[in-house]
């Protein structure tokens, strides 16, 4: 993959819904080939920002670029370079994980080996169970596999460990490390301090639709702890 100074860039992103501003001039970037963790409470605008970044929502103001392209206007070739795992899932419920992953793999020129990916994420243990019958944790594992099967250059993982047990979370952390080492740019949204500290090369803290801190974990945290900095910043933003 070609290195980009900022593979993902949000500048003054505004996204409004009736009676709510989800993103309020939010700005942050994600360096190429690194893991950017977007940390914030529920309702901070994390998911809305991701959906704008993958072209599922259109900003009301500001701009978003991914791989130097506006995702809202992007064509199929660009979309094939970007993977996404959304909180809402968005997976068809009438098929099985095995059929779904093989179908998705067939849409890409150079997909990841389905059997290897399914085994790595534990999907092979329920590969023949209908998607609608999967547990929350199984659904998360399948959604992550679906996001990665196309070998994306950039992947957005929205709360990827929600509903997973401790072993499942460790599996996800290890997999994120692997895909980062292969040069993939990873954006992870979370409200978990453990996850942010474990994964982040670049840390963004958001609150009430705005970015309140950004930089390396050391730059953001300074001499305190992540919890202290986070609560100080988010309470100040809310006030």
Task: Describe the overall structure.
By secondary structure, this protein is of the alpha/beta class. The chain is 34% helix and 25% strand. The protein is built from 9 helices and 9 strands. The protein has helices spanning 46-53, 76-79, 97-105, 114-120, 136-148, 166-181, 193-199, 217-221, 226-238; strands at residues 8-17, 20-30, 35-39, 61-66, 82-85, 154-158, 185-190, 202-207, 210-215. A 6-stranded mixed β-sheet has the order 5-6-7-3-8-9, with helices on both faces. A 3-stranded antiparallel β-sheet has the order 2-1-4, with helices on one face. The radius of gyration is 17 Å and the shape is globular. The model has no long low-confidence stretch (mean pLDDT 91).
Task: Write a brief caption for the model.
By secondary structure, the chain is α/β, with parallel strands linked by helices. It has nine helices and nine strands.
């Amino acid at each position: 993959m070609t290195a980009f100074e900022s593979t993902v860039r949000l500048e003054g992103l505004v996204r409004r819904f009736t009676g709510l501003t989800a993103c309020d001039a939010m700005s942050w970037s994600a360096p190429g080939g690194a893991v950017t963790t977007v940390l914030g409470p529920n309702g901070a605008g994390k998911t809305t920002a991701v959906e704008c970044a993958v072209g599922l929502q259109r900003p009301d103001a500001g701009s978003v670029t991914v791989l130097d392209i506006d995702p809202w206007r992007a064509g199929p070739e660009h979309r094939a370079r970007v993977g996404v795992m959304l909180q809402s899932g968005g997976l068809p419920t009438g098929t099985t994980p095995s059929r779904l992953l093989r179908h998705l793999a067939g849409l890409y020129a150079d997909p990841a080996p389905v059997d290897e990916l399914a085994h790595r994420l534990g999907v092979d243990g329920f590969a023949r169970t209908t998607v609608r019958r999967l547990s929350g944790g199984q659904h998360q594992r399948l959604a992550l596999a679906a996001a990665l099967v196309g070998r994306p250059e950039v992947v957005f993982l929205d709360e990827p460990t929600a509903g997973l047990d401790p072993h499942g979370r460790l599996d996800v952390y290890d997999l994120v490390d692997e895909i980062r080492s292969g040069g993939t740019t990873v954006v992870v949204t979370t409200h978990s301090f453990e996850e942010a500290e474990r994964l982040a090369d670049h840390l963004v803290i958001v609150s009430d639709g705005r970015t309140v801190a950004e930089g390396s974990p050391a730059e953001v945290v300074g001499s305190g702890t992540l919890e202290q900095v986070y609560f100080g910043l988010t309470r100040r933003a809310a006030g």
